[in-house]
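User: Fold this; tokens only.

Assistant: Input:
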Amino acid sequence: MFFKPKKQKEEKKELLYLKNIRTGCKADTQENVIRQVGGMLVESGYVDEPYVDAMIEREKSFSTYMGNGLALPHGVEAAKKEIKASGIAVMVFPEGTKWGDETANIVIGIAGVGDEHLRILGIIAEKMLDPDTISELLKADAQKIYEILSEE
């Protein structure tokens, strides 16, 4: 072949897809919840499989529980190479799920290319400071959650 085929321009991924929002989740172990939310990141092409183990590693060294019923699991720094695109996945536990010594109602798995994870964490944390937003998310369907989390 005398020419290199043009690389297909990869479609930029949305930060959140409707399919990555699960409502009405039942309590499970912290590790299983991280594996589930991490699995959504893998299935959507945001990360490679080893990133999920890195999310569990992060939790062992430093809790990602933020208060207000919110946990934001993400991988350790060494797993950055496993991230293909920035994205989030959401699980809502109306009855809560054990998160260390706390109870999480909303778990948002995060993968951020470069330093984007800091921007993503900041946006989510700001939205979740309002207890009304948390209670609204707990009762909302996936579409409403998508709208709340997608607005800048």
